[in-house]
Design goal:
homodimer; alpha/beta; 434 Repressor (Amino-terminal Domain); Rossmann fold; 6-stranded parallel beta sheet; 6-stranded mixed beta sheet; 12 strands; DNA-binding
DNA sequence: TTGTAGGCGTTATCAT
DNA sequence: ATGATAACGCCTACAA
């Protein structure tokens, strides 16, 4: 395999000139640059990753931290990962998938100590995420996709759950609904740790209070049986005219239940999906009116934020909250009785 | 950060002794080993990954090749990936996610040329997969998860689709069904390239012919609307008593349709899922009788096969076909009329 | 604008 | 059973 010395020889220059030419880190005359690039082309030369990592100050590796003791295998997370991998690749970085239980950081800290990583992306961040502090103490540059309870001086990219909830209530209010039923994930220990549930709930309470809307909350596991029980209960109350369901799984389950119960949508009840992934919005249930958030965007921005923080010597803390947008489709309408 | 020299100094031995002790590649006396390990412990030493990769014959990196121009974001694929990452981690390897359009291999070949990879795992392998030949020519050790049309001298781990189809028909025959409707993915160019569809179809034809069962095939895209059209058509024929649905998405869709149509299962029709992931079997539709295959197993065995092929100097071609197993639940029964 | 040479932290090849 | 030392392929002061 051709090395940098071969290129230097063929181009009739020194190795350092080749290195500098390729890294654009020093002015090179046009004529030499051309000869170097020509030699590179001739020999099909590509710098050795390990050698670069060893000699340079950067390895080119980013870790994607995936907790394995939770229900992570949803398509939303998958889409984040794929987008992150593509973005990293585009920017000349390599994404290493690192699976570790949510509480553990030993494996990752070892990786850092072994000089493998430039930084890390955290997925499925919980309100109290022990990984964050551990990594900060280990001086690992990190970006959360999501955020913990108090992300004061920590970089993150997250969906703006509060804004999404506000938008949902505002929209339903505009249609004329005054009784809204919110169906969220059950308060199992599992879900309770994630910020999105809490933040949505708080925002819903505030927004409905302000607009004078009655909010009733119901909680269910996302499986069909549990949802059915909840739905039957919810639909017993004839005053309810709108259903607000949080998350992909709830929304997908709710559809089949409503179909089975032959409930006319939106004639009898409106259904609005809150924080639904683009995949569900576009493919799985294209008729559903949703407040959408995009996993691709999270993955991309996460990687870009991390890389930027590596480049910039400054310590500016990038914190991005992505606004969701309303996709008005066919499952929402004005309430069935006039007010 | 403590390096190998520090350890050597502290242990009072030479660097090479430390290296050999840690890699167990040379007999070391008990007393020195102990001193070395003690020093390692003291200094919290971890060998530098880049230096090892540069000096040694192995980098410790495996690529997971994910084609991005297809519908890859199903939970089955995700589970394969997570299992692969965990297995790699357990064996001291790192998994790099490499996204590239199915036709392309340039990016990956560059990676090889750059000395990054020990080997590669191919996901979403098509019957005619240009990646395989390209990688073989580039002498990249590779393992397919899935397999192409003629995997003669190529390593792979795949579900045994033919065996699964046989098992399904045998089971339905045993229950007494003589008219079976198969619902597979539509013959869009998209799906046509994947072996599983073809292999299942061939096996079904053979098995039904042999057992004197009437097989009717229907094809549908996995979305609700298309499935509904197909299902209405299928259920028009009163002689049909069993539905055989291929793949997770078909099966999940079919459930909601059947619910909406209020078709009694299994009293009116039996439903049997063919090549269903463990996730669907255990969580999403736990009552469904299925022929299950396990993504976790594929991911694990894929990585292990690759690593083994790296270790063994021999050129034995490991080819693993995983048998699926029948999970008898509540959606299948004897046909509704006696024969 | 270009060249020289000393690391980077291991592994592997010789010796002993 | 252990040591010394030359690669490994590149980056980056320092020199010219």
């Amino acid at each position: 395999m051709a090395g940098i010395t071969d290129v230097a020889k063929l181009a009739g220059v020194s190795v350092s000139t080749v290195s500098y030419t390729l890294s654009r880190t020093r002015p090179i005359s046009n004529s030499t640059r051309e000869r170097v690039l020509w030699a590179v082309e001739q020999l099909n030369y590509q710098p050795n990753v390990m050698a670069q990592g060893l000699a340079g100050s950067r390895t080119g590796f980013l870790a994607l931290l995936l907790p394995t003791d939770e229900a992570i295998s949803d398509s939303f997370t998958f889409d984040i990962i794929v987008a992150a991998a593509e973005t990293a690749r585009d920017r000349g970085f390599h994404l290493v998938l690192w699976t570790e239980p949510a509480g553990e950081t030993k494996g990752l800290q070892d990786l850092m100590r072994r000089g493998l990583l430039d930084g890390a992306l955290l997925l499925s961040v919980r309100l109290h995420d022990t990984r964050v502090q551990a990594l900060q103490e280990a001086a690992v540059p990190l970006v959360m996709i999501g955020r913990n309870e108090n992300p004061a001086d920590c970089l993150y990219v997250d969906s703006d759950a509060a804004q999404a909830a506000d938008a949902a209530i505002a929209y339903l209010a505009r249609l004329g609904h005054t009784n809204v039923d919110y169906i969220g994930p059950s308060n199992s220990a599992h879900q309770a740790g994630f910020g999105i549930v809490l933040r949505v709930h708080e925002a819903l309470e505030a927004a409905t209070k302000q607009l004078g809307i009655n909010l009733r909350s119901a909680y269910s596991d996302p499986n069909a049986k549990a949802l059915e029980t909840v739905m039957i209960d919810v639909l017993k109350d004839p005053s309810v005219t709108a259903l607000l369901a949080l998350g992909d799984s709830a929304v997908v389950g709710i559809r089949s239940i409503l179909q089975a119960m032959q409930t006319p949508v939106p004639d009898y009840v409106s259904v609005l999906g809150l924080l639904i992934s683009t995949r569900v919005t576009e493919t799985i249930w294209p008729q559903l009116t949703t407040i959408t958030h995009d996993p691709k965007e999270l993955g991309q921005l996460g990687v870009l934020t991390l890389i930027d923080s590596l480049d910039s010597s400054t310590t500016d803390v990038t914190q991005i909250l992505l606004p969701s947008k309303l996709n008005e489709r066919t499952t929402t309408a004005a309430p069935r009785f006039p007010l």
